[in-house]
């Protein structure tokens, strides 16, 4: 399916720093005219309205903007939208399936893995990737590979418990 975000995204006007970029996000294709310096984070939030991905520090230090690019976690504030062209992008909005919330999303709710909730989308995206990477063997390993995601409220023990619960359940539910 091909979507055009809006008529103002692709038009006959262009500047030296603009180009047409095609992004595959959560199973849908979007064609946008973007400045080549636009980050994936800004394209997702400002141009596509996918505001689940959060802008925290905008410097790659907090992990709030974590998304999956071809199944691997990336910081969307440090990734140019043009770099994601032709690659599969999954945001927090894309994790929910026909059966409802992803198992990691359910576990975060069951284990109170959030307080204010601002970091939660990035935490969940990182947790799903960490399990797909096979890095949820112990609490220490979970803490190490989640260390790029900051929770200002301090819900770390609950986040680890949520990840451990899903990872110990095994099977396909522990992965994307």
UniProtKB/TrEMBL annotation:
Record PROSITE patterns: 2FE2S_FER_1, 2FE2S_FER_2
Gene3D superfamilies: 3.10.20.30, [2Fe-2S]-binding domain
UniProt keywords, alphabetically: Iron, Metal-binding, Oxidoreductase
Entry keyword Iron: yes
Domain 2Fe-2S ferredoxin-type: 19-95
InterPro entries: 2Fe-2S-bd, 2Fe-2S-bd_dom_sf, 2Fe-2S_ferredoxin-like_sf, 2Fe-2S_ferredoxin-type, 2Fe2S_fd_BS, Aldehyde_Oxdr_Iron-Sulfur, Beta-grasp_dom_sf
Pfam families according to UniProt: Fer2 (PF00111), Fer2_2 (PF01799)
SUPFAM superfamilies: 2Fe-2S ferredoxin-like (SSF54292), CO dehydrogenase ISP C-domain like (SSF47741)
Record keyword Metal-binding present: yes
Top-level lineage group: Bacteria
Protein name: (2Fe-2S)-binding protein
Originating organism: Streptomyces lannensis
């Amino acid at each position: 399916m091909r979507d055009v975000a809006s008529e103002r995204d692709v038009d006959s006007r262009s500047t030296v720093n603009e180009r047409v970029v095609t992004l595959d996000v959560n199973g849908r294709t979007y064609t946008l005219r973007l400045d080549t310096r636009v980050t994936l984070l800004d394209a997702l939030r400002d141009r596509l309205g996918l505001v689940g991905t959060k802008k925290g520090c905008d410097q790659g230090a907090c992990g709030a903007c974590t998304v999956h690019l071809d199944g691997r976690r990336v910081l969307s504030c440090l990734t140019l939208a043009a770099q994601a062209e032709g690659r599969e992008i999954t945001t927090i909005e894309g994790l929910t399936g026909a059966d409802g919330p992803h198992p990691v999303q359910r576990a975060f709710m069951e284990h109170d893995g959030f307080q204010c909730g601002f970091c939660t989308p990035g935490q969940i995206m990182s947790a799903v990737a960490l399990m797909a990477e096979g890095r949820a063997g112990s609490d220490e390993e979970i803490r190490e590979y989640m260390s790029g995601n900051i929770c200002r409220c301090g819900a770390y023990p609950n986040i680890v418990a949520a990840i451990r619960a899903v990872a110990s359940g095994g099977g396909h539910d522990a992965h994307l």
